[in-house]
Each structure stands twice: as C-alpha cells, then as structure tokens.
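Researcher: Here's the sequence for the chain we discussed earlier.
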Amino acid sequence: MAREAGRGATGRRMTASLSRLALAMAVAIAAATAQAQSADRRAEGLAAYQRGDYTAAFDALRPLAEAGDPSAAYTVSRLYLLGQGVPRDTGAGLRWERKAAEEGEPHAAYQLGNRYEYGLELEQSYADAARWYRAAAERGLAAAQFRLGLLYASGLGVAADPVAAHMWLNLAAARLPPGEVRNTVAKLRDTVAAKLSAPQIAEAQRRAREWRATGTP
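Model: Thanks. This is the structure I predict for it:
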C-alpha cells in the first residue's frame, strides 16, 4: 500500500510538472506569435510611411507605439510634428518623441538633444542636450557622437574634457560614410588632438577601441 501510495504521489508530481511545462510553452509560443505579429505590423507601417501613405502608417504604428515600441513611437512623433496623416500637433509630437527616446530609440534621443542644444520648441539646456546626445551616442549614432564630442570640447553641459571629446569625435569619424561630413569631423578630432599630450591621445584612442554600443555583445 505504501509503495502504491508513493507511486501515486510521484505520478501526481510528474503530472503537475508536465502541466507547468505545457503552460510555460504555451506562454512562450503566444509571446513569440505576438512579437511576430508586431514585427509584421511595424514593417507594414514603416513601408506605408516610406511610400507616403501617412494615414495607413499612423493606423498601423499608433497601437504599437502605445504598447511601447520605440521605433513606432518615433515615427508617430514625426507624423504629429509634420502633420502627416494627422493634424499637426507639436505637443503630441514632442511627447511621442520623448517616449521613443526614453525607450531607447537613438534618433529620437538625438532629436531631443538637438532641441535642447538650440532651444527648438524646448527651453535651451546644454546639460539636457548632453544627456540625450549621450543616450543616442551610446547606441552608436554617429551624429550624436559628433555633437557630444563638441560639447566635451567646449565644456557646454558637461565638464570640458578633451580626451572624451577626442574619443567621441574619433568614433563618429569612424562610423560616418566617406565624404565631406566625415572629413570635417576628422579635422575637428585632429584639432582636439593637437592640444593633447601623447599619453592623452593614447588614452582617448584606447577608450574608442574598447567602446561598444549599448545592446551589442
């Protein structure tokens, strides 16, 4: 009897374990399906935006933006700010832009940094500009790395730090495509380098070599 009771208890535990495993698998499958559907809807919305069908883009992307998709939120911000597919609404556009930036969209963070640096629709603040440029720079956006490097070189919004300035300008120059803009950034980096000692240049170059964009292995 005791042996049969033991086997019964073991069977119940196995059944319970299998039930939990089946539930976990069902949840995982549902999550993967939802992610795939979101990706399809995002692709559909972005494609509509690219071909100029802004109403379709808004209809596809707004629900994703509300669900926390940073790419969708950024595109929705563009639609509101430019009055594409919806009536122009600067306040709504800025709210979606900030939401996208807070959720890690580098272009949104760069735009916020630009607004704060130049006082565009927001009160000018170099400290806030540096904060948002850094958020975008850490994710590998070359334009933000360039602007952050300039702030470090001039000491605006951050303590002046020529080594950090050289590092960020160096990273920006490396990521930009060949052309006039890249050449200009490289010249600015070299201008900063001319004021550094050899050990300082070596330190800036070491930081640039070891830097990794946020979210990369």
